[in-house]
Amino acid sequence: MSEPTPARPSLLRREPDRPRGVILLLHGGKVASARPVDGRSASWRLARALQRQITPAAHEARLATWLLRYRQRGWNDPTAPAPVADAHWALTEVRRHLGEVPVALLGHSMGARTAVRVAADPLVRGVVALAPWFPPGEPAASLAGRALVAAHGSRDRITSALATEHFVHRAQRAGARAEFIDMGPVGHYLLRGSGRWTEVARSRSVALLVE
Question: Suppose 143 and one of 2, 162, 176, 186 were both cysteines; which one would form an S-S bond, judging by CB atoms 3.0 to 4.6 Å apart?
Fold first, then answer.
Protein backbone atom coordinates (compact mmCIF):
# COMPACT_ATOMS: atom_id res chain seq x y z
CA MET A 1 0.00 0.00 0.00
CA SER A 2 1.47 3.33 -1.08
CA GLU A 3 1.91 6.22 1.30
CA PRO A 4 -0.62 9.06 0.94
CA THR A 5 0.65 12.28 -0.59
CA PRO A 6 0.96 15.00 2.08
CA ALA A 7 -1.66 17.73 1.82
CA ARG A 8 1.06 20.38 1.87
CA PRO A 9 4.76 20.62 1.12
CA SER A 10 7.11 21.45 3.97
CA LEU A 11 10.15 23.60 4.68
CA LEU A 12 13.37 23.04 6.62
CA ARG A 13 14.30 26.54 7.74
CA ARG A 14 17.68 27.67 9.08
CA GLU A 15 17.71 31.37 9.92
CA PRO A 16 20.02 33.92 11.51
CA ASP A 17 18.65 36.83 13.51
CA ARG A 18 16.71 39.26 11.30
CA PRO A 19 17.52 37.67 7.91
CA ARG A 20 17.74 40.10 5.03
CA GLY A 21 17.13 37.46 2.37
CA VAL A 22 16.52 33.77 1.72
CA ILE A 23 18.32 31.10 -0.27
CA LEU A 24 15.53 28.69 -1.18
CA LEU A 25 16.82 25.22 -2.06
CA LEU A 26 14.80 23.09 -4.48
CA HIS A 27 15.73 19.42 -4.68
CA GLY A 28 15.64 17.06 -7.63
CA GLY A 29 13.14 14.38 -8.47
CA LYS A 30 11.78 12.21 -11.27
CA VAL A 31 10.01 12.74 -14.55
CA ALA A 32 6.95 10.95 -13.18
CA SER A 33 6.24 9.68 -9.67
CA ALA A 34 3.32 10.22 -7.33
CA ARG A 35 5.26 8.84 -4.38
CA PRO A 36 5.55 11.29 -1.49
CA VAL A 37 8.93 12.80 -0.68
CA ASP A 38 10.00 11.36 2.64
CA GLY A 39 13.25 11.12 4.56
CA ARG A 40 14.40 8.24 2.34
CA SER A 41 14.41 10.38 -0.80
CA ALA A 42 17.99 10.56 -2.10
CA SER A 43 17.29 13.85 -3.89
CA TRP A 44 15.95 15.49 -0.75
CA ARG A 45 18.84 14.15 1.35
CA LEU A 46 21.37 15.50 -1.15
CA ALA A 47 19.76 18.95 -0.94
CA ARG A 48 19.67 18.76 2.86
CA ALA A 49 23.42 18.06 2.90
CA LEU A 50 23.99 21.00 0.56
CA GLN A 51 21.91 23.22 2.84
CA ARG A 52 24.11 22.28 5.81
CA GLN A 53 27.24 23.10 3.82
CA ILE A 54 26.17 26.55 2.64
CA THR A 55 24.33 27.71 5.78
CA PRO A 56 27.35 29.05 7.74
CA ALA A 57 28.31 31.43 4.92
CA ALA A 58 24.68 32.37 4.39
CA HIS A 59 24.20 33.21 8.07
CA GLU A 60 27.39 35.27 8.07
CA ALA A 61 25.77 37.36 5.35
CA ARG A 62 22.48 37.42 7.37
CA LEU A 63 20.73 35.15 4.89
CA ALA A 64 18.38 32.31 5.74
CA THR A 65 18.48 28.95 3.99
CA TRP A 66 15.17 27.22 3.42
CA LEU A 67 14.86 23.74 1.92
CA LEU A 68 11.54 22.91 0.29
CA ARG A 69 10.27 19.32 0.43
CA TYR A 70 7.77 18.71 -2.37
CA ARG A 71 4.63 16.67 -1.84
CA GLN A 72 5.48 14.29 -4.68
CA ARG A 73 8.75 13.07 -6.19
CA GLY A 74 7.77 13.62 -9.83
CA TRP A 75 7.36 16.51 -12.26
CA ASN A 76 4.25 14.63 -13.40
CA ASP A 77 1.63 16.65 -15.28
CA PRO A 78 3.55 18.76 -17.82
CA THR A 79 0.75 21.34 -17.91
CA ALA A 80 0.72 21.77 -14.11
CA PRO A 81 3.97 20.36 -12.69
CA ALA A 82 3.64 19.26 -9.08
CA PRO A 83 6.83 20.89 -7.72
CA VAL A 84 6.05 24.26 -9.30
CA ALA A 85 2.92 24.69 -7.19
CA ASP A 86 4.96 23.74 -4.13
CA ALA A 87 7.64 26.31 -4.97
CA HIS A 88 5.00 29.03 -5.33
CA TRP A 89 3.72 28.01 -1.88
CA ALA A 90 7.25 28.34 -0.46
CA LEU A 91 7.57 31.88 -1.83
CA THR A 92 4.24 32.73 -0.23
CA GLU A 93 5.64 31.41 3.05
CA VAL A 94 8.70 33.68 2.68
CA ARG A 95 6.37 36.65 2.44
CA ARG A 96 4.28 35.47 5.38
CA HIS A 97 7.22 34.93 7.70
CA LEU A 98 9.80 37.49 6.56
CA GLY A 99 8.06 40.02 4.35
CA GLU A 100 9.30 41.26 0.99
CA VAL A 101 12.88 40.03 1.31
CA PRO A 102 14.88 39.01 -1.78
CA VAL A 103 15.19 35.34 -2.65
CA ALA A 104 17.83 33.34 -4.51
CA LEU A 105 16.64 30.00 -5.87
CA LEU A 106 19.20 27.19 -5.64
CA GLY A 107 18.04 24.13 -7.55
CA HIS A 108 19.52 20.76 -8.47
CA SER A 109 18.25 18.85 -11.51
CA MET A 110 14.43 19.02 -11.46
CA GLY A 111 14.77 21.65 -8.76
CA ALA A 112 16.53 23.95 -11.22
CA ARG A 113 13.71 23.53 -13.72
CA THR A 114 11.24 24.28 -10.95
CA ALA A 115 13.22 27.38 -10.01
CA VAL A 116 13.02 28.77 -13.53
CA ARG A 117 9.26 28.21 -13.62
CA VAL A 118 8.76 30.44 -10.55
CA ALA A 119 11.55 32.95 -11.24
CA ALA A 120 9.14 35.68 -12.35
CA ASP A 121 7.97 36.13 -8.76
CA PRO A 122 8.94 39.66 -7.65
CA LEU A 123 10.94 38.34 -4.68
CA VAL A 124 13.30 36.34 -6.89
CA ARG A 125 16.67 37.86 -7.77
CA GLY A 126 17.94 34.89 -9.71
CA VAL A 127 18.58 31.16 -10.04
CA VAL A 128 21.63 29.04 -9.35
CA ALA A 129 21.13 25.79 -11.26
CA LEU A 130 23.26 22.72 -10.51
CA ALA A 131 23.21 19.94 -13.14
CA PRO A 132 19.84 21.30 -14.26
CA TRP A 133 17.10 19.54 -16.19
CA PHE A 134 16.39 21.96 -19.03
CA PRO A 135 14.78 19.96 -21.86
CA PRO A 136 14.61 21.42 -25.37
CA GLY A 137 11.98 24.12 -25.56
CA GLU A 138 11.95 24.86 -21.83
CA PRO A 139 10.68 28.47 -21.58
CA ALA A 140 13.15 31.10 -20.40
CA ALA A 141 10.99 34.24 -20.39
CA SER A 142 10.52 34.08 -16.60
CA LEU A 143 14.22 34.95 -16.20
CA ALA A 144 13.96 38.37 -17.87
CA GLY A 145 15.69 40.90 -15.63
CA ARG A 146 17.08 38.18 -13.37
CA ALA A 147 20.34 36.29 -13.10
CA LEU A 148 20.98 32.66 -14.02
CA VAL A 149 24.09 30.71 -13.12
CA ALA A 150 23.97 27.22 -14.62
CA ALA A 151 26.71 24.73 -13.71
CA HIS A 152 26.98 21.36 -15.43
CA GLY A 153 29.48 18.51 -15.78
CA SER A 154 30.36 16.88 -19.08
CA ARG A 155 29.88 13.32 -17.76
CA ASP A 156 26.31 13.84 -16.64
CA ARG A 157 24.22 10.97 -18.03
CA ILE A 158 20.97 12.02 -16.35
CA THR A 159 20.60 15.55 -17.72
CA SER A 160 22.41 17.26 -20.58
CA ALA A 161 25.19 19.84 -20.27
CA LEU A 162 24.68 20.74 -23.93
CA ALA A 163 20.98 21.37 -23.33
CA THR A 164 21.96 23.59 -20.39
CA GLU A 165 24.31 25.63 -22.60
CA HIS A 166 21.52 26.08 -25.15
CA PHE A 167 19.14 27.16 -22.40
CA VAL A 168 21.62 29.73 -21.11
CA HIS A 169 21.74 31.28 -24.61
CA ARG A 170 17.92 31.38 -24.71
CA ALA A 171 17.84 33.00 -21.28
CA GLN A 172 20.28 35.66 -22.45
CA ARG A 173 18.06 36.41 -25.43
CA ALA A 174 15.10 36.65 -23.04
CA GLY A 175 16.85 39.38 -21.06
CA ALA A 176 18.56 37.42 -18.28
CA ARG A 177 22.12 37.89 -17.03
CA ALA A 178 22.98 34.27 -17.70
CA GLU A 179 26.21 32.31 -17.59
CA PHE A 180 27.28 28.71 -17.98
CA ILE A 181 29.91 27.14 -15.70
CA ASP A 182 31.67 24.06 -17.06
CA MET A 183 32.27 21.79 -14.07
CA GLY A 184 34.53 19.46 -16.05
CA PRO A 185 34.31 15.65 -16.28
CA VAL A 186 31.86 15.11 -13.42
CA GLY A 187 28.43 13.52 -13.20
CA HIS A 188 24.96 14.44 -12.04
CA TYR A 189 24.80 13.90 -8.31
CA LEU A 190 27.33 16.51 -7.08
CA LEU A 191 29.58 13.80 -5.63
CA ARG A 192 32.72 13.99 -7.73
CA GLY A 193 34.16 17.46 -7.32
CA SER A 194 31.78 18.04 -4.42
CA GLY A 195 33.87 20.88 -3.00
CA ARG A 196 33.59 22.88 -6.19
CA TRP A 197 29.85 22.21 -6.48
CA THR A 198 29.42 23.49 -2.93
CA GLU A 199 31.52 26.57 -3.61
CA VAL A 200 29.48 27.46 -6.70
CA ALA A 201 26.25 26.95 -4.76
CA ARG A 202 27.42 28.99 -1.78
CA SER A 203 29.21 31.86 -3.46
CA ARG A 204 26.78 32.43 -6.31
CA SER A 205 23.64 32.19 -4.18
CA VAL A 206 25.01 34.63 -1.60
CA ALA A 207 26.21 36.99 -4.34
CA LEU A 208 22.70 37.20 -5.81
CA LEU A 209 21.45 38.65 -2.53
CA VAL A 210 24.30 40.84 -1.30
CA GLU A 211 25.64 42.36 -4.53
Answer: 176
Distances (CA, A) of 153 to 61, 69, 128, 185: 29, 25, 15, 6
| 197 phi, psi to nearest 5 deg | -55, -45
Evaluate whether 135 touches 166 at the Cβ level (below 8 Å): no
Please give the chain's pLDDT, 211 residues, in tens.
Answer: 456 777 789 999 999 999 999 999 999 999 999 999 999 999 999 999 999 999 999 999 999 999 999 999 999 999 999 999 999 999 999 999 999 999 999 999 999 999 999 999 999 999 999 999 999 999 999 999 999 999 999 999 999 999 999 999 999 999 999 999 999 999 999 999 999 999 999 999 999 999 7
Domains of the chain: 10-210 (3.40.50.1820)
R_g (Cα) of the chain, nearest Å: 16
Residue count of the chain: 211
Residue 108 buriedness (CB in 10 A; 0-12 / 13-18 / 19+): buried
211 burial (CB, 10 Å; 0-12 / 13-18 / 19+) is exposed
Q: What is the pTM of this model?
A: 0.97
